[in-house]
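It is worth pausing here to work through a concrete case rather than discussing structure prediction in the abstract. The textbook approach is simple: state the sequence, then state the predicted structure, then interpret. We follow exactly that order.
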Amino acid sequence: MARFIDDLVGAIYDFCKFIFKSVCYLFAGMLIVGVPLYLITLAFKMFN
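Step two, the predicted structure:
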C-alpha cells in the first residue's frame, strides 16, 4: 500500500511540475514576443 501511495504522489508531483513548467514557458514566450512588438508599435507611433 505504501508503494502505491508513493507512486501516486510521484505522479501527482510530475503532473504539477509539468503544468508549472508549461505556464512558465507560456509567460516567457509572451514576454519574448510581446515586448518587442510593443516597442515596435511605440516606434511607429512616434514616426506617425
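Step three, interpretation. The helical segments are 2-47. The mean pLDDT is 96.
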